[in-house]
Amino acid sequence: MGERQLKRALVTGATSGIGAATVRAIAGTGRTTLALARRSERLRNLADETGCDWITCDVRDCQHVLEVVGEFEPDIVVNNAGVGHGIAGLSDMTQEDIRASLETNVQAPIQITACAVRGMKRRNLGHVVNIGSIAGLHTMISSLYGATKSAIHQFSQNLRVELAGTGIRVTEICPGRVETEFYGVASGNPEGLAKMADTEIRSLQPEDIARTILFALDAPMRVNVSTIEILPVEQVVGGVRMAPCSWENKGE
């Protein structure tokens, strides 16, 4: 007897970058795929290209998104929607930026997952894929963004324990630099963000992450791909950085 199949996938943040590439990859396997994002025209174009279903939805709109999840009853959830507010430093962030980061990067994926796993538990089948970041695993410069992705890392680790024995798998994908619109839409110091985006390294492509997600989804059901850290060959993390400060005229 063949293994039971994961047939219905929900992908958030689906209109560009990793989200759009993931919709293309999953829909390409013949699975029913529902794309969620805020930009209707892009969703419509993606649907024309891939045959996916789509709903315009801001993941911060809790009531709407939970209605969608509950009605669709996905076997697969890819929590991809996220914002990069604070990546250039915390001190200049507005309260709205901080609130948007927490609601989009932390609250929404937890709420979506909580809703989706109810049906997954009834079917003893499901797969939650959380898009984290190396900023959630390593000490870096982005305290706000890193904090939200660290929360997703711990959420993924603990959820796996919580769901033991249910047949539901949990995977966290932690990319390094990916060539997407991320730096263009992140808020913070524009000059600093431009410098971070304008590098000569060969960045990962969204399709690289989408293929990684498919690898986890298509593994035999006895296999749970727990955490994948994926970086460009030319990007490394770790080490110690010293930054001497001049204390003159600082006052004591």
Distinctive features:
252 residues, alpha/beta, 7-stranded parallel sheet, 7 strands
Low-confidence stretches: none
**Radius of gyration, CA atoms, in whole angstroms:** 19 Å
**What fraction strand?**
5-15%
Number of strands: 7
Can you give a write-up of this model?
By secondary structure, this protein is of the alpha/beta class. It has 8 helices and 7 strands, in the order βαβαβαβαβαβαααβ. A 7-stranded parallel β-sheet has the order 3-2-1-4-5-6-7, with helices on both faces. Helix 1 (17-27) packs across helix 8 (206-217), helix 3 runs parallel beside helix 4 and helix 4 (95-123) runs parallel beside helix 5 (143-162). The longest helix is centred in the middle third of the chain and has 29 residues, at 95-123. It is globular and about 65 Å long. The mean pLDDT is 90.
Concise overview:
The protein has a seven-stranded parallel sheet with strand order 3-2-1-4-5-6-7, sandwiched between helices. The protein has helices spanning 17-27, 40-50, 62-72, 95-123, 143-162, 182-185, 190-197, 206-217; strands at 8-12, 32-37, 53-56, 76-79, 126-131, 168-175, 227-230.
